[in-house]
Design goal:
With 224 residues, this protein is an alpha/beta fold. 30% of the residues lie in helices and 24% in strands.
């Protein structure tokens, strides 16, 4: 299915697109089903959302910090329309580390709830390819994107009382690891960070990219 949207056929073209096959792998590993709520806090050109829409009729929200000059959201919508796929509920421009932006994501999910359940503001899945390499060069924080995401999950639940990820939900992502790095010590959030976020490491699968770099598909269960 992912062969129907290779980067060369996309209307929204970015410098570092996620491979469609990799996006499909993330969504398939997560086990998404129709009706599930999905958030990609590093949405880019919404490749994860395209893959998800090809698997099931999900309710998805994208957060992407880049402005339309870099990631054209009108072109993204046309990428869905030309493939007759359901687009995201919202494609928010903003920083996912900002609580107000995450609240916008929850409100977009709430508006989509036909039953009017005001408690339906938590996501079943967070599926993402966090920025690294070129895309991470502008990072102002010493923490990695996955550490920032764990902090955000903790803050929203414990401080705001508005969980971002549902108990029983999953966080599924790709994480790069070079031969000089230790996956557990240098790449993954610490056990303390994971415990605070209520995340339990469930699955790790390695995909070697070259002789010195691997990409790991990592899945966490949300247990709080």
């Amino acid at each position: 299915p992912s062969s129907s949207f290779p980067p060369a056929t996309r209307l929204c073209i970015t410098n570092t697109p996620l491979c469609p096959i990799a996006a499909y792998l993330l969504c398939n590993a997560a086990g998404i089903q129709s009706g599930d709520a999905l958030l990609d806090p590093y949405g880019g050109s919404c490749t994860v959302h395209l893959a998800a829409a090809m698997i099931a009729d999900v309710r998805s929200v994208s957060i992407e910090i880049a402005h339309n000059g870099l990631v054209n959201r009108d072109d993204i919508l046309r990428d869905f329309e030309t493939r007759q796929l359901t687009p995201p509920l919202a494609m928010l421009q903003g920083d996912c580390t900002d609580p107000s932006v995450r609240e916008e994501a929850r409100q977009a999910l709430l508006r989509s709830n036909e039953n009017g359940n005001e408690e339906d503001t938590t996501f079943d899945f967070i599926i993402t390819d966090p920025p690294y390499g070129i895309r991470e060069s502008t990072n102002y924080n010493e923490k990695s994107p996955i550490q920032e995401l764990a902090d955000a999950i903790t803050y929203d639940r414990d401080v705001l009382g508005q969980p971002l990820l549902k108990k029983g939900g999953k966080l599924v992502c790709f994480l790069p690891c070079s031969e000089e790095e230790s996956l557990h010590q240098d790449v993954l959030p610490s056990s303390t960070e994971l415990n605070k976020a209520g995340l339990k490491l469930a699955t790790m699968r390695e995909q070697p990219l070259n002789d010195s770099l691997s990409r790991w598909l990592v899945m966490f269960d949300c247990v709080r």
